[in-house]
Design brief:
130 residues, mainly beta, 4-stranded antiparallel β-sheet, elongated
């Protein structure tokens, strides 16, 4: 399928223009639940616009996932800037992305929420092959 994903303010967060169409199997859990449900039963050539609320997309924003950490635990040779993404290791050894949202002299705030958490997603799609 070809698609464009926008937010409520009209900004585009993802688009298939200039890339191969998105290909996935309905029911395989390869895309967010609301997206999979919205395309279920669509046929080749069909177009559709739909909205997915946060609960069926990337979840609600969780304040507990934004934490201040001491600068000293980050690599000292790295220039830390607001907006950059870092990989952080959980106590279980899993690596997850975290966005730097604030940089202070002693502390850095890392946000481990998905960048689209808490946001409704609007998709315009067209099935190019079923």
């Amino acid at each position: 399928m070809e698609y464009t994903g926008t937010l409520d303010d009209g900004s585009v967060f993802d688009c298939s223009d200039g890339r191969e169409p998105l290909e996935f199997t309905v029911g395989a859990g390869q895309v967010i639940p609301g997206f999979e449900e919205a395309v279920r039963g669509m046929e080749e050539g069909q177009e559709k616009e739909f909205r997915i609320e946060p609960a069926e997309a990337y979840g609600e924003y969780d304040e507990a996932l934004a934490q201040q950490v001491p600068r000293t635990i980050l690599r000292s040779d790295m220039e830390i800037e607001e907006g950059m993404l870092l990989l952080v290791r959980t106590p279980e050894g899993e690596e997850i992305p975290a966005q730097v949202t604030e940089v202070g002299a002693e502390q850095v705030t890392l946000d481990m929420n998905h960048p689209l958490a808490g946001k409704a997603l609007i998709f315009n799609i067209r099935i190019v092959e079923a």
